[in-house]
Every structure is written in structure tokens, then in C-alpha cells.
Design goal:
The chain has 452 residues and is an alpha/beta fold. It folds into two domains: 5-139; 142-263 and 268-450, Rossmann fold (3-Layer(aba) Sandwich), CATH 3.40.50.410. 34% of the residues lie in helices and 19% in strands. It contains eight helices and 13 strands. It comes from Janthinobacterium violaceinigrum. This is VWA domain-containing protein. Residues 143-257 form the VWFA domain.
Amino acid sequence: MRIPHKRQGGQVLIMVALSAVVLIAAAGLAVDSALGYFVKAKLNAAVDSASLAAARGVTAGNSEAEQRASARQSAKEFFDVNYPDKFLLSTPTLNPVDVTFDKGTVTIDVSATASLPVSLMGILGFKTLNVAASAQTIRKDLDMVLVMDTSGSLKNNTDAVRAAGKSFLNKFNSTVDRVGLLHFASEAQIDVPIKQVNRGFDRSSMTVKDGKIDKFIFTGGTNSSAGMFHARKQLNDILPLNRSSLRVIVFFSDGSPAAFSSYFPNTGNNCTTAGGLATFTAFQNSPLVGLYAMKEADNVQSGNCAASRITAIPPWYNADKEFDKADDVALREFPIVTNTPRVVTASIASAQVQWTNVHRASRNLVEAMAAKARQEGIFIFTLGMGASLKTKEGPDNELGEDLLRCLANTTDAKASCRKPAEPVGLYCYAATDSDLSPCFTRLASAILRISK
């Protein structure tokens, strides 16, 4: 039986109409899925940034309530910046940020949704497409010592150094993190010891007007090993049971070391006080500058402890020992007279020999102390400032910034000091005053990332 021509035409029209609906729906699905994918990617990025911002924001405040509020505000600000309203015509919603404190750990949960109107999928009855994203940041506790160079070469940068140091400390949680502060020039001084048992740190004593940082006096030489030694000792004096999961030394300096501390053999052995022995590049053909008092940034000893009475370079670093134990073999940790990595002899026979041995010993010691700290699981972050770090100095024409890279064990450190199996830190170079705070911020961000 033949179907009439008009009936055939009607059936074809119905089939074409149905096919068109399917094709339009398929096209709509493809278009809306693509839009949904872009919205999802944008939402993920915004939630991630908000989560990290909250981890930084939680450091502000003197109570958990204040810190929770700060974290939530930071999350909202970063979410709004990273996900503008009406992105691809979508409407974002940041859900309440959950901030949970548990002893030394802060857990931050951030989630958000976004809805966007569909295009061709509306033919199938869909009105909106909803996407969601979430992120969790776990900020662990932190033990950190900030080591600040206050040598005379930084005298013209005083205001910038003080402001950057304060800003850096404000990025950490004064009730959860433990932070110590010390500075060094010709010797080192501990300004605020790190707490040994309780958590938190007295940030206000460091950062308020006329506080510890404001009282820094920029004068004297560069005894980097004194700063590194006391920073490591501060962290290691915390008993293993009480240590944080992340231990960090942040080391700021503007030049190459040219001083180190020890008990020095002396005429008649009448000096029973350790001191920091310093020299300067400009004094290559002059006698040793002075033996500086321990735990004082710039106070030259005299009388029996005058530099002119020193008779030799000691074989081992022993400045932290009692005088009657200074040569105890069991207490020897860091050699001074050595063939590696730079040759140092015990001789001070001439001004040139003195200058060479003091420079080399100064570099060897701070590198050895940093290496020991890294072997103990301590991360070292370094910040260098000024053109002198890019100028070859000392008897071996070495760059100061190469030393700072070695201390931090950065991926671009010299092969001779690079240790891939040890904690890898970060080195940041500040050419001018205006670069200093951004560098400190970069180090803070890196520390906060590895504490998660």
C-alpha cells in the first residue's frame, strides 16, 4: 500500500523538527559545557588563592576570634579579586570560610559556587548551570629565627631595613608560631629568644615604635657565622618533643663575612674572653681591626684582649664554650684551620696573611654551620641587599650572593655547595630599598607554603 505523498512530507517535517531539537540540544550542551569548564577553572583558581590568603591572614590578631575574622576577610578579598562578578555572566557565591584551630595547626576550608545561565540547553528545560569548588589549607606550626645584619655598611638603609623586618614579622601568627629575633655585626646579639615550650612570640616587643628592631644600631663588621650559630642553637635548644614540624632560619645580609668569633691564643694567655675578630677589604695591608666583645654588636676589647696580642688562629670554633673547655676535643664541631673548602692556616705572620685567613675562615664557618642546620632538617632562607653582593671580594674573589645561595641550598647554588638531599630554601636579592619589603614578602610566602 503506498503512503500518500503529503503524509510522507509531513513525517519528514516531524523527523527534521525532532532532529533539529536534538542537534540544538547537542550544540547547547557543547557550548554550555565549555562555558562551564571555564567557569569551573576560574572558580578553582579563586578558591585556591582565597585559601592561601586566609592562611596568611590568620596570622593577624591577638586572639583566635581576631585571627579567624582576619582569615575570612583575606579569603573574601582574594576571592573577589580573582573571580570578578558576572564572569561569563555567572554569579559567584563564597560560602562561609571555616577556620579550625587545633594546638599548633590551623585548618582552613574554603568553598564556593557559581551559577551561569545556559544558552541553547534551555530548549531542554535547563535554566542555569551550577559549578562548585573547594580547597583546604592546613597551616602547621612554625619555629623560626630571623637573623638581621646590622653592620655599618647598612647605615644608609636603616629605615628600609627596619620597616621590612617589621612587615615580615607581621605575616606570622603571634599565638601559633614561635619566632626568635637576633642581629649581628662584629658579633651577635639575641634580641628576643625563641620560646622553648609555649607557642607564640612577643611580636609587639619586636615591631612597636622604639621596640627591638627600632633599637638596632648599624655599625661594625660582618660576622655572619655568629648570626648563623646562634640562630641554629636557638632552634636546637627546643627539646625534640616540643619542636614544630617546620623549622626555619631567615638570614638577611648585605655583604660578605669578614669576621668570626672564638677564643684566640694570645700573648701570655692573659685574655680569657672569647671575641669576634674582624677585618675589612680596605685593610688588606693593615693589622687586624679588633677583637670585639661577645654578644655585643660593636664593642672592641682592649688591654690583654686587644687584637694586637693575638698570636694565632685557633684550630676550632669554640666561642660558645667555657674558657677551660675551649680545647675539649669532644666539643669540637666546626674546624677553622682547614684545607677545605678554603685553605685557612693558623698563621697571622703578616697583615696580608691575617686578612686572608680571617676572610676565608669567616666564609667557611657560616657555610659549615648552615650545612649542619640543614642536615638537622632546618630550612634556610636568605635575603641579600645591595650592589656589594654582586662584587667579587676577599682573597678568592668570591661573590657575596653566591655565599647566600649556598647557605639556602638553592637550586641555582654553586655545584660545590649544592646538596639536593637537604632542605632547599630560597634566596632573594634586593637591589635597592624599595626591593627589600617585596623580597621579605616573597620569603614569607614561601615559608607559609611549605608549612601547609
